[in-house]
Design a protein that fits this description.
The protein is 50% helix and 13% strand. The chain is an alpha/beta fold. The protein has an eight-stranded parallel sheet with strand order 1-2-3-4-5-6-7-8, with helices on both faces. Helix 9 links the parallel strand 4 and strand 5. The structure holds hypoxanthine and zinc ion (ZN).
Length: 326
Amino acid sequence: MVPMPFAELHLHLEGTLEPETILRLAERNRIDLPYADVDALSAQYDFADLQSFLNLYYANMATLQTAADFAEMTDAYLARAARAGVRHAEVFLDPQAHLSRGIALEEVMDGVSTALESSLATHGVSSGLIIAMLRDHSAQSAMNVLDAVVALGKPILGIGLDSAEVGHPPSKFIDVFARARAEGLHLVAHAGEEGPPAYIWEALDLLGVERVDHGIRCLEDDALVERLVTEQTPLTVCPLSNVRLRVVDDIADHPLPAMLQRGLNVSVNSDDPAYFGGYLDDNVTAVRDALGLDEAALTTLARNSVTASFADDTRKVELLAEIASG
Ligand code: HPA
Ligand code: ZN
């Protein structure tokens, strides 16, 4: 079966490092990891919450050293995403997590950009890069990264906000997002994953984001749902991630059908596929099978993913036509 075309809008490149790749990079770069083999590493993939995942996610990044490593990681994701039906990908990168362990920004950006530049020709996937700011670091650190990335001149789509949510509200980053807006960049932020609906309000009102990443806790606030429906603000929902990080108890309890029912502009995404049990196709299959989403609902999710993307209009029209032709 040919998979339905989708845009993937919520994907952390560093979250695509498969255990096998982590061990191979560790050996190549002579990095000591406390795991003897893939089984020992994979046994760690049992998370109590977002922070317990982030601890492993950041630790495993130690294996990424050279531009070639970053290019390889990005290219491997694009190849796998293409097989999943992804035709357009807007991917997050966490530069602060690499700068803080002594890797030069040029090394990181050169590798990722090289792979993204050839994504359409090589994999049939158009792509763009979103620089994600670590919200548990200072606003000054985010501003420094923004300045450095802009000065580097590699093409980027916009900025986002990720990492440990609770205790780090969007309001902390007002100046950073204002500066990014002045640079003409797109603005998105993780909000309402573990954090309260108030963080979604802040992301909208104080940061001016165009999309909310996750956002599922909006359902706790009727006025917020009404606002998101009226403005058709895209929410990039990540079902398998929500289960693995215990944001929802079970895939069968996921609120995606309720969100669709209420008219929210939701799409399905894989977040950190190497850690959460699957790529975009696995997420789509999971929601179809566990939540009984029919063909019409899946088509709505595919259409939403394209219209919510920052792809140019020509590409959007092309992808929407592909979706319509089934
Ligand atoms: N949430 C917040 N920050 C992240 C995530 C996530 O799921 N993945 C990588 N950084
Ligand atoms: Zn995420």
